[in-house]
Write a structure and sequence with these properties.
Low-confidence stretches: 1-45, 370-375
Strand content: 15-25%
Largest sheet: 8 strands, antiparallel
Number of helices: 15
Shape: globular
């Protein structure tokens, strides 16, 4: 088959992105402000000039990351508007010998963009158009688009959606490459299960930057590059400039039938147990109930495939804190309220106190920003997949660390999130995409944050490390794949997994993230980034 080069790709049918969500208005949607650019140059296809220290825009660009723990100081930023500009930016950085990093939404949890060795940052934030490409019969999404924009445009324009995250301002560029999951994943799978094709700027052995299109069809020239982007993580192979989404079983050319239909509305729920109501016995009961419910209700055919939830356990003693079970279910599902009530009752069964419960109705777009929120203060995050509920020993470790200290001076701002997984995500074989963890029931997120003005984060970082090491003490301090755990999630990167002092398991970090898929990812890396231009502390190493 003849290679489809980027300049030969079918021209998308354009539909402009709307400016705000129903939930939060323009301010909530916009995230970091877009910077003024030379629009005439951009329209003409001419490359924009680098933005260097001393330029009034430089400081704002250094602070686009959501984690205040890291602030970069590259030699310059390139704010790009097209594939041609990305090719030029990559080519210039390679020619100059500068380490490259790419930023779309700015939600990387480690210093992969803001590391001192990074000298040229390619900022994708202006590339945020969403359109229907009639030639490919797929929806084209540029990497700078935030999830709220993607959801809104697909829904308002065509009544469809793609399963992705619950945080509105996350950029789709890095989200999809790591697999992408969220509110609709139990019904529809993860984001990459609907990835039809993508355009990537890569660097050849001789240092030449070029754009190629990689497709889901195994008979196309760059299918292996497509596969690597279905969970291989960002910053590894090149710069994604466009994604195309179409469900693998979609037929015909009616765009309203090419992705899953979006629900009209959700029934939201929130049930909370305060710390004064949770002694060690009740906490163990609550955690065990929740995990066992997920074990019973995570197959693709479960009546609860339309339910998404997060069990959040917070260290604070503030009103309404403690353990909070929050989520949504498609309101059109028969017996939706009964399903929610039965779920909350099952999780709380045997716990001494009854939870405070709210069940507000939400529209589809409102629901996407009502479950979780993000932080702009410094924080440290660790992750794990669960195949089964925590053991009693692990639950006791959680209780010991998460229950607030009686001494205010000893309190930590920490949290554990247990996010519903399974359902349709389990329909796909672990080697069909680069997402190897397909039979898990939950994703665990361990987090600690702090105030940058009054704290340096040392105590908080050690707290979350101690919690993690304690939970996984039986497997070298990390979630080694086995009966209960199944590794970690690359979209929540944790450089500690590559630190032999933190990971004493003997299992390398890349096995925790990629399991048996890592050797294939290495071969793709060697083929498309043989010079290792795109690298960071947890980057895939090319096969030699």
């Amino acid at each position: 088959m003849t290679e489809r080069r980027s300049d030969a790709a079918p021209a998308p049918t354009r539909r402009r992105v709307l400016a705000a969500t129903a939930a939060g208005g323009a301010a909530a949607l916009a995230g970091p402000a877009l910077l003024p650019v030379d629009t005439a140059a951009a329209a003409a296809g001419a490359p924009t000039d680098p933005i260097r220290p001393g330029d009034p825009r430089y400081l704002s660009l250094t602070q686009r990351g959501c984690n205040g723990r890291f602030i970069g100081k590259p030699d310059y930023y390139r704010v790009v508007h097209s594939t041609a500009e990305v090719v030029d930016a990559v080519q210039r950085a390679v020619r100059e010998g500068r380490r490259i990093a790419v930023r779309s939404g700015g939600h990387c949890f480690e210093d992969f963009v803001d590391h001192p060795d990074i000298k040229a940052v390619i900022d994708m934030s202006p590339m945020r158009e969403i359109s229907y490409d009639a030639g490919r019969r797929a929806f084209c999404v540029e990497p700078g688009a935030q999830l709220a924009e993607v959801y809104r445009e697909l829904f308002i324009g065509w009544g469809v959606t793609v399963p992705a995250g619950a945080t509105a301002e996350v950029g789709i560029g890095g989200h999809v490459v790591g697999g992408g999951y969220g509110v609709m994943s139990r019904r529809d799978g993860v984001s990459v299960d609907h990835l039809h094709a993508l355009e990537v700027v890569v660097v050849d052995e001789d240092g030449t930057a070029r754009a190629v299109i990689a497709e889901r069809d195994p008979d196309t020239p760059h299918h292996d590059l497509w596969w690597a982007h279905t969970g291989g993580g960002g910053g590894n192979f090149g710069v994604v400039t466009r994604y195309w989404f179409r469900s693998p079983d979609a037929k015909g050319d009616d765009p309203t039938k090419l992705l899953p239909p979006a629900p009209a509305s959700f029934l939201a729920f929130r049930a909370g147990w305060t710390w004064k109501d949770l002694d060690a016995r009740d906490f163990r009961t609550l955690m065990r109930n929740h995990g066992q419910w997920c074990e019973r209700n995570s197959d693709p055919g479960t009546p609860y495939a339309n339910l998404f939830s997060v069990l959040m356990v917070n260290t604070t003693q503030a009103a309404g804190s403690g353990a909070v079970l929050a989520g949504v279910i498609d309101a059109a599902v028969p017996g939706a309220r009964r399903l929610v009530d039965d779920y909350i009752a099952a999780v709380g069964r045997g716990v001494g106190a009854q939870p405070a419960i709210r069940r507000p109705p939400l529209s589809w777009l409102n629901a996407l920003t009502s479950i979780t929120d993000t932080r702009s203060s410094p924080f440290k995050v660790k992750s794990a997949y669960l195949r089964k509920t925590f053991t009693d020993r692990q639950i006791d470790v959680l209780h010991e660390h998460l229950r607030p200290s009686d001494d205010p001076a000893e309190r930590i701002s920490g949290t554990l999130w247990l996010v519903a997984y399974g359902g349709a995500a389990r329909k796909v074989a672990p080697d069909a995409t680069a997402v190897a963890q397909r039979d898990s029931i939950l994703k665990a997120v361990y987090m600690a944050g702090w105030d940058a003005e009054t704290q340096d984060g040392t105590r908080e970082t050690e707290w979350v490390r101690s919690l993690y090491r304690g939970v996984y003490a039986d497997s070298g301090g990390v979630p080694v794949p086995g009966a209960v755990s199944d590794g970690a999630f690359i979209n929540y990167p944790d450089a500690d997994l590559a630190d032999p002092e933190q990971n004493t398991s003997g299992v390398p970090w890349y096995t925790l993230y990629y399991k048996d898929n890592y050797p294939r990812l290495q071969r793709v890396k060697a083929k498309y980034d043989p010079r290792d231009e795109f690298r960071h502390r947890l980057s895939i190493r090319p096969a030699r």
